């Protein structure tokens, strides 16, 4: 509780008191000479659902041929990241600070992803670097990394809400999956933009398609935080004959599910706050009859312990891949 007799008093008890009071509880201390001290902490009982331990995907990782710009001021960390990415097949450019990274971005060299530490030395900060990168290369994917949590970074004003963050320390597998997911997500955005520019004025005739007749009575909840991808996927679902409900977050999706009957959930994995995997587990617990499709840039879908397996829909995808995934989950609903 404190240091040696006569020394400065420690902070143990004050920290305990502060923690307990913040949680709505209280502390009782009883001391008796020659017997010792008893401390009892009383904390409010929680009636919420116990957190479910999420299974980590440990399958093979996947790289690619894209070009990634790594911005990291720590030379040792930078060298390690560059080596890992090169082993995955990526072409890697490197910069020790944001200003050097901006020079590379302005060189006209094709770059698919900016991977930058949040805290960078110099006058140009990482958030501003990301904005400038998007101005020059609108299709570039941006991934931040930091030893701080996403909540502390966003609440501290260093980054905007909804950014993609990989927390340090991270494994080679976590790095590979996060990068592949974001790169594939950007490809899906590009496909969605292309589709919106080339809308067929004559919608396809699905009246003779047996699976479309089956789809006509099905309602799909589409959960996707990227507005362009969500709009494109909703159009494809409607073209396939489904009734579509849309949500941009897992929390909004749960609110819809509480009010409307749904047969199929199509969800992105990389949702803000509550992830697509957490959403799927909650849906499986509360509505086990709903079929689940994971639309993701990753090469594997999380496994759900109870009920039928979820179906993987990889990004980028078109209407044919979407139809195949829905056909696979329809018999399960």
TrEMBL record:
<feature type="region of interest" description="Disordered">
    <location>
        <begin position="191"/>
        <end position="216"/>
    </location>
</feature>
<feature type="compositionally biased region" description="Basic and acidic residues">
    <location>
        <begin position="194"/>
        <end position="207"/>
    </location>
</feature>
<dbReference type="InterPro" id="IPR050595">
    <property type="entry name" value="Bact_response_regulator"/>
</dbReference>
<feature type="domain" description="Response regulatory">
    <location>
        <begin position="219"/>
        <end position="330"/>
    </location>
</feature>
<dbReference type="Pfam" id="PF00072">
    <property type="entry name" value="Response_reg"/>
</dbReference>
<keyword id="KW-0804">Transcription</keyword>
<dbReference type="GO" id="GO:0016772">
    <property type="term" value="F:transferase activity, transferring phosphorus-containing groups"/>
</dbReference>
<feature type="domain" description="Response regulatory">
    <location>
        <begin position="67"/>
        <end position="183"/>
    </location>
</feature>
<protein>
    <submittedName>
        <fullName>CheY-like chemotaxis protein</fullName>
    </submittedName>
</protein>
<dbReference type="GO" id="GO:0000160">
    <property type="term" value="P:phosphorelay signal transduction system"/>
</dbReference>
<dbReference type="InterPro" id="IPR036890">
    <property type="entry name" value="HATPase_C_sf"/>
</dbReference>
<feature type="modified residue" description="4-aspartylphosphate">
    <location>
        <position position="268"/>
    </location>
</feature>
<keyword id="KW-0805">Transcription regulation</keyword>
<feature type="modified residue" description="4-aspartylphosphate">
    <location>
        <position position="117"/>
    </location>
</feature>
<keyword id="KW-0597">Phosphoprotein</keyword>
<dbReference type="InterPro" id="IPR001789">
    <property type="entry name" value="Sig_transdc_resp-reg_receiver"/>
</dbReference>
<dbReference type="InterPro" id="IPR004358">
    <property type="entry name" value="Sig_transdc_His_kin-like_C"/>
</dbReference>
<dbReference type="InterPro" id="IPR011006">
    <property type="entry name" value="CheY-like_superfamily"/>
</dbReference>
